[in-house]
Amino acid sequence: MNFFCYPCKFKEMKQGLTLITCRDLPEIRNKVDTFYTNKECAQFAIEEALDIRISRGQYIPRASKPHPDETCIVLSEQWEEKIIRHNNRKGLVVI
Fold first, then answer.
1. Strand 18-21 vs strand 29-32: parallel, antiparallel, or unpaired?
2. Residue in 92, 74, 76 with CA at minimum distance from that of residue 84
3. DSSP state of 62
């Protein structure tokens, strides 16, 4: 299992918008249009949420196992390394 493959939900809304949520990162509740793909928008939202958590010195959780109605958004190896270094500095080792 990829520890940093965050499951997201995509809910179609009115006027061509999609609501993106991520239960492991509850601060993500983005409404997006169709200029970018839903996965690209989710990737941007996750990276932004992680940057904020890092800047605040907050722990970054491992990803939960996805539910059938969720799509996993895989982070790059650079992001995984960044998260592990951050959590290790905080004394919170990801196993």
1. antiparallel
2. 92
3. P
CA distance 73 to 47: 11
Would you state the torsion angle of the CA atoms of residues 67, 27, 73, 17, taken in this order, to the nearest 10 degrees?
Answer: 90
**Cβ neighbours of residue 49 under 8 Å, at least 6 residues apart?**
22, 25, 27, 28
For the chain (95 residues), the mean pLDDT of every run of 10, in chain order, is 84 87 93 80 94 92 93 92 88 60
- The one-letter amino acid at 59: Y
For 8, other C-beta atoms within 10 Å of its C-beta total 24
